[in-house]
Amino acid sequence: MPVEFNLIEFVGYAASLFVAISLMMKNIVKLRWINMTGCILFVIYGASIGAWPVALMNGFCVGINVFYLIKMGREQSQQPA
Q: How much is the pTM?
């Protein structure tokens, strides 16, 4: 039986992998970037299969990650050299 390549399933597995990897990060900036990538992939996956709660919740998580990345960037730029 041939294995069928399903791009949408691949996106879902990749999203899960990125989120899982993000939880192993010690560096909070790396964690946020990797987690945001996983969340964006979950938005694509959820929208593609019509799972709107998945897409919306992960879209919200993308927004949280963006907020904190901007906040951390501003705090870092305001620190004296």
A: 0.89
Tally the residues of the chain. 81
Rounded to 10 degrees, what is the CA torsion of 70, 73, 25, 21?
40
* pLDDT tens per residue, range 35-71: 999 999 999 999 999 999 999 999 999 999 999 999 9
Are the beta carbons of 34 and 25 closer than 8 angstroms? yes
Q: Is 34 helix (H, G, I), strand (E, B) or coil?
A: helix
Which residue in the block uniquely carries the two structure tokens 């039986």? Answer: 1
Residue 20 lies in a domain: yes
Q: Is 2 contained in some domain? A: no
Whose tokens are 């992998």? That residue is: 17
